[in-house]
Amino acid sequence: MIELLPQLMRGVARHESNALSRGVITLPQLWALESLNRRTDVPMHTLAAALGISKPAATAVIDRLLAQQLVTRARDAQDRRVVRAAITPKGRRILATIWAQKRRTITQV
């Protein structure tokens, strides 16, 4: 496995052309999208904990995804101190495209 992993990584890099490989989104943004895809309306503090980053760092990740319309952000109806994030249909499409291409690429490599 140790010998195959570098070859696999080079092969993946050569064959992929998606939002992640083109630099449209970063790896932390991909992880955030994946986390939001698994649950709906995630409080920011929960997202930060899931990603293993600080709340301000999570806010910065979500700000960049929000600018690309990949997520939404809203205050909680019951507690206005709580901010929730959710993935948009556009975010789900990008995420699905990335994972589908990764599966195809790994199979080819």
Overview of the structural elements:
With 109 residues, the chain is mostly helical. It contains five helices and three strands. Strands 1-3-2 form a three-stranded antiparallel β-sheet. Helix 3 packs across helix 4 (55-67). The longest helix is centred in the C-terminal third of the chain and has 20 residues, at 89-108. The mean pLDDT is 89.
Any descriptors?
109 residues, elongated, 60% helix, 5 helices, mainly alpha
Question: Which spans of ≥5 residues are poorly predicted at pLDDT below 50?
Answer: none
Shape: elongated
Q: What strand line-up does the widest sheet have?
A: 1-3-2
Order of helices and strands: HHEHHEEH
Q: How many separate helices?
A: 5
Brief overview:
With 109 residues, the protein is mainly α. It is built from 5 helices and 3 strands, in the order ααβααββα.
How is the secondary structure organized here?
Elements: H1 4-15, H2 27-38, E1 42-43, H3 44-51, H4 55-67, E2 71-75, E3 83-87, H5 89-108
Antiparallel strand pairs: 1-3, 2-3
